[in-house]
Amino acid sequence: MALLEVKDVRKRFGGLQAVDTVSFAVAEGTIKALIGPNGAGKTTLFNLISGFVSPDGGAISFRERQVQGLRPYQVAAAGMARTFQHIRLFPKMSSLENVMVGRHLHGRSGFLASMLSLPRTRREELKAKDKAMELMDFLGIAGLAGTEATSLSYGQQRLVELARALACEPRLLLLDEPAAGLNMRETAEMASVISKIRDMGITILIVEHDVSLVMNISDEIIVLNYGRKVADDVPLAIQKNEDVIRIYLGGDDA
Amino acid sequence: MRSSAHLALFGLIAAVIAVQQITAHTGSGYYLTQLTMSAYYSLVIVGLCLLMGYAGQISLGHAGFFAIGGYISAFLTTHDLTPLKDTVFVAFLNKTGILWAREDLYGGQLLTVQPWPACIAAVLFTVVVAYIVGGPVLKLKGHYLAMATLGFGTIVYRIALGTTALGAADGLSDVPPFKLTPFLEVSGEMSARVQNYYIAWGLVILAVFLSLNLIHSRIGRALRAIHAAQDAADAMGIDTAKYKLNIFALSAVFASVAGVFLTHYNGGIGPSEASIMKSVRYVAIVAVGGMANLWGALVMGTLLNFLSLRGYLGSYDDAVFGGILIVIMLFIPRGLLHTDILRDLRALLPGKAGEEDA
Amino acid sequence: MNVDLFFQYIVAGITYGTIYAVVAIGFNIIYNATGIINFAQGEFVMLGGMTAVSLHRFLPLPSAVLAAVLITMIVGALIEVLFIRWLHKPSVLRMIIITIGLSILIREIALHIWGEGVKALPYFTGTSVSSIKLGGVFVSPQVIWVVGISAVMVALLSFFFNYTIAGRQMRACSANREAARLCGINAKNMVTLSFALSAAIGALGGCIVSPITYVQYDSGTPLAIKGFTVAILGGLGNSFAAVAAGLLLGILESFSIWVMPAAYKDVIAISILLVILFVRPSGLFGSREAASMKEF
Q1: Is C117 on the interface with B (CB under 8 A)?
Q2: Cα angle at C207 between C202 and C210, to 5 degrees?
Q3: What is the percentage of chain C residues whose pLDDT exceeds 70?
């Protein structure tokens, strides 16, 4: 049984069929990439999986549990963490605090315990801080812990966002265009970080525009076009797939 | 972070004691009355600051929660139950010690609820109202949230003004003192002035202590995250609706407790405490203090309420608050008490203010 | 309840409903042009009524009303120029607080100019006791004036937005400010115009209704809340629906006296507002899809 299984998922926005009966599966411990031209429905599919949009039909099962139609926080609690195409860090909070928000699900102190600052709350707080620092260290941004997150450079912000998602200790990590806005060197670094995360045992689903990035690191690739699945295969086969070549070289109808 | 917050708390305690000592030695003890009242209003403002500044949810109806607390406590402690003495329910209450036979000002016999149970009932009722109202209201954003909370405040005001049992336009008076412990009593008696000053400010200090802890905790981070980017907070597993509702209820409790205490201190409450203008004042003060700035809200709250209660603002009282709101929001939207206020003012000069987030 | 009383309630409902609709249209004009809800909208109504009463002491009624409308219009434009125009992408919260501050300030200024007294213009024709028989029902002539002038106003507005260049430019701005700017429309002037227009409409509403409802320095806020309720009920931005919603609210309120003490009349309107906000924020006639696209 795959970790994530998407079956016949559909979503329509007004007159636009954004996602049209798409099915695929992500096996535990692999990196799967979702590519396609602009408006292919990649981000919508992503939002469907992470609970930001409810599907019109179809089923999404994660760890053998139906998750379609759940609210995003419930999906997150089930073990999925995500990043955003347009970075969504919390302004006016330090990088460390941003990452510590990612530890939310692993804390238990409620309003009362927090207000009274009980010993157990303080222990929990220290643990959250240690874990956050450990992750920032892993991504090489420990030195930025005290800096306000939104004042960092674009590449650094991407890493903080990644650290925040990792802080959830997800089983499945959803990365929405993690290389968008990064330069060549930063993109290469991001690729190696993503591979390292997979090696830690975290399954990854990645939406990406940069085809070369995903060719190198993905175990499998799905190609979407006009909301439909065109191909779903290993990178080598995708490179040879004629439909995919037509889509990407614009031989479609131009 | 944490230790500096606690240091500031000690500063507050020292300031509270110092002010009392100064008034005692200069014979200006009469200031304590307004300082005590300001403290209770500051309690509302601290709660509203948590809601508006940290969780980012505006409320134009907080005077409603203050009034609910004050009115329920006033009603229960003044409403004479003697005619109902023989009904099962009242007899049962009487047996449990919740009721209290006492003499009114003219020597007549009264049977009313004791202040403690009245206070607890008032706060519990506020919590229930906060959850019932907050559930749907907090799903709204921006203008809709503002209007809905304004609507809630107006409903409370209209009910207070239009209900004869609540004294209609006159409000409720002859509210008895609230004996907290055998030695502490919330009352407007001259002899209890110093004591009441410390009760009020003790409550504020407690509220600030609890709030500071909350802000710097897992919950506080979650609230700030909701304010900053609700979708991202959601993706981190934060049940945003639940947290917004809880902080709304918490700030309602602060307002309600303030209402209960101030009503016992003043010996009564009138519908003006529920008016929209009061709610707007609270919002104005949080804004002037810098929204997400507990200390700013506290300082400005005490200062402005004190000036207003002493009558220094004269008949321009409301106009001053309106003017403050406009000026602050136009020129220094981040509040008077923040560190780079000069930068904000300078940014205005070339005519290009910085962009801001929602 | 006899038939006569029933129709009296209907007439009262229509009168108040018309004014709510007028306030709601004022909200809509500014909302469409800027995305702002002007919390000082009710103050325009009060200002119009008060100014007209003062001017009527030495001007004949029609000129007093006209002058009051013009003055309020200028106040509206000035408010936009002084407080709104130069803000660069202000947040919703900031705009809410600024317009609330303005409403307080206007009210307090009115208090210092006119005092706390209740004022009213005389009936435009006839007196408070004269009445016209209309299909078996006796109606005060002022009601005819209120309904008639409001109807003409709505017709003129609709003509303005559909057939004049300025009106079409305003509509273009509300549809897409950036695109309108690129087409050479000065969006900022359009916003000023929307404030002026909205103030003028509010002021005229204040004048025509003052013989019936009276006017006082603080009569703006309740009107603003009712007007907002109606604007929401009709779907924010939709002025024709606002007329229907206004009449609906006015009549509902009028009949609420049946079941509740009159002191709670406002509670009815606001409860409706809350229920609508919770259940159907796009309004009774608005589309859900369009509402979800708007930024509140």
Answers
A1: no
A2: 115
A3: 96
Q: What is the pLDDT of residue C95?
A: 86
- Whether residue C266 lies within 8 A of chain B, CB to CB, comes out as yes
What dihedral angle (degrees, nearest 10) is formed by the CA atoms of C224, C228, C230, C236? Answer: 150
Domain assignment of residue B16, yes or no? no
Nearest-angstrom CA–CA distance, B268 and B270: 7
Confidence (pLDDT) at C292: 42
Q: Distance between CA atoms of B1 and B6, rounded to whole angstroms?
A: 9
In tens, the pLDDT along B48-83 reads 999 999 999 999 999 999 999 999 999 999 998 888
pLDDT in tens, C157-177: 988 988 888 888 888 877 777
Domain map (residue ranges) of chain A:
1-79+170-254, 90-169
Q: In chain B, whose CA is at the least distance from the CA of A174?
A: B235
Nearest to B228 among A52, A91, A109 (CB): A91
Provide the residue count of chain B: 358
Hey, is the C-beta of C116 within 8 angstroms of any chain B C-beta? no
Contact B136, C278 (CB under 8 A): yes
Pick the CATH number of C3-293 from 1.10.10, 1.10.3470, 1.10.287, 1.20.1740: 1.10.3470
DSSP at A147: S
> What tokens appear for C262 in the block?
């009159």
A152 band by pLDDT with thresholds 50, 70 and 90: very high
Q: In terms of Cα–Cα distance, which of C222, A242, C155 is closest to B155?
A: C222
Residue with tokens 């999404």: A60
Domain extent, residue B108, equals: 29-348
Q: What region does A75 belong to: left with phi over 0, alpha with psi -120 to 50, or beta?
A: alpha
- Which H helix or E strand runs over A46? helix A42-49
- Three-state SS for A190? helix
Cα gap B285→A50, rounded to integer Å: 40
Alpha helices, DSSP H, located in B216-340: 218-228, 230-235, 240-266, 276-289, 294-309, 317-331
Residues whose CB falls within 8 Å of the CB of residue C152, separated by 6 or more in sequence, listed in order: none
Residue indicated by tokens 């290469």: A188
Q: Under an 8 Å CB criterion, which residues of A touch B? A: 50, 52, 71-73, 76-77, 81-82, 84, 88-93, 97, 100-105, 107, 109-111, 114-117, 121, 124-125, 128, 164, 168
Q: Is B225–A93 a contact, with Cβ atoms under 8 angstroms apart?
A: yes
* Per-residue model confidence (pLDDT) at position C265: 81
Reported as a pLDDT band with limits 50, 70 and 90, residue B357 is very low
What residues of B are in contact with residue C109 (Cβ under 8 Å)?
Answer: 319
Residue B134: inside a domain, yes or no?
yes
Smallest CA-to-CA distance from A187 within A224, A149, A158 is with A158
pLDDT digits (tens, 9 = 90+) for B301-328: 999 999 999 888 888 888 888 888 888 8
Please tell me the distance in Å from B236's CA to the nearest CA on chain A.
Answer: 5
> Does C263 reach chain B within 8 Å, measured CB to CB?
yes
Q: Per the CB < 8 Å rule, is C92 touching B162?
A: no
Highest CATH level, class, for A1-79+170-254: alpha beta
Least confident of A122-131, A144-153, A219-228, B337-346: B337-346
